Amino acid sequence: xxxxxxxxxxxxxxxxxxxxxxxxxxxxxxxxxxxxxxxxxxxxxxxxxxxxxxxxxxxxxxxxxxxxxxxxxxxxxxxxxxxxxxxxxxxxxxxxxxxxxxxxxxxxxxxxxxxxxxxxxxxxxxxxxxxxxxxxxxxxxxxxxxxxx
Length: 149
Fold this sequence. Notes:
By secondary structure, the protein is an all-alpha fold. The protein is 70% helix and 0% strand. It has helices at 9-18, 22-39, 54-72, 77-94, 96-100, 102-116, 127-146. The model has no long low-confidence stretch (mean pLDDT 83).
């Protein structure tokens, strides 16, 4: 049985990350975690918990769970991201103005990134590579046009 060359952890992680809306799920989960951390602030810092405190802990917990679900079940990313953006906007009222705006912005940004992610999209070609290819194609055409007939 021939031995396969061992692949490192980093290339395996990159392949895993490329098949899912990684940054969207991560930002949504970080936004929920940040809002949960601001809930533990002292009473001098807490501005408004609201709705007997339950929703103040429930919404960011659900944001955290949705962020993890986006990472580990990307096929349902549309539902998770729409729910995530609604929950993030709901924390404006229930959780210290959305974790003092930071968790709110992280949650909304992550949800939008997850919503806009396309699974079967070709990798983008950098501007530098496009210019290089255009120059190579232009030089090839110029040489052919400059030849005597």
